[in-house]
């Protein structure tokens, strides 16, 4: 990872080690982070920018839309997302974001502020006991 500049992976439909689910091979961190997305610029003017990203998965029947917005004078990144199961059966999934920062982006002057929040999760039955460092399903983060 010496030369990894970082990035922002969206992880659907699973995270961690891949496996077989309902006859579908799920790779490590799912497929959304590995396939091309389409995009459309919704707004690009002095008051801010807003871009809509869309992706349809190949192995699973999901369609994901994401809008990222930056407003002039506001240091926040606004994220709005919608995930649709276009299939005919219920599918369990894990959906998470995996931002990483590295390379030329980081130096001693960089500060990343993340507000305190809570994470709620449900482990798949086959993963119970594999993640001993996680206690409970409603944890404080960071």
From TrEMBL:
GO MF entry, a single one: catalytic activity
Lineage of origin: unclassified sequences, metagenomes, ecological metagenomes
Gene3D superfamilies: 2.70.98.10
Name of the molecule in the record: Uncharacterized protein
GO annotation, biological process: carbohydrate metabolic process
């Amino acid at each position: 990872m010496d030369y990894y500049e970082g990035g922002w992976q969206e992880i659907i439909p699973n995270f961690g080690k891949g496996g077989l689910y309902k006859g579908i091979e799920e790779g490590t961190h799912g497929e959304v982070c590995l396939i091309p997305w389409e995009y459309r610029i919704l707004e690009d003017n002095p008051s801010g920018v807003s871009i809509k990203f869309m992706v349809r998965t190949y192995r699973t029947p999901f369609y994901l839309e994401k809008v990222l917005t930056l407003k002039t004078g506001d240091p926040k990144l606004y994220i709005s997302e919608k995930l649709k199961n276009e299939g005919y059966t219920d599918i369990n999934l894990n959906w998470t974001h995996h931002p990483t920062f590295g390379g030329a982006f980081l130096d001693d002057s960089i500060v990343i502020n993340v507000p305190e929040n809570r994470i709620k999760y449900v482990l798949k039955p086959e993963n119970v006991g594999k993640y001993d460092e996680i206690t409970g399903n409603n944890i404080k983060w960071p």
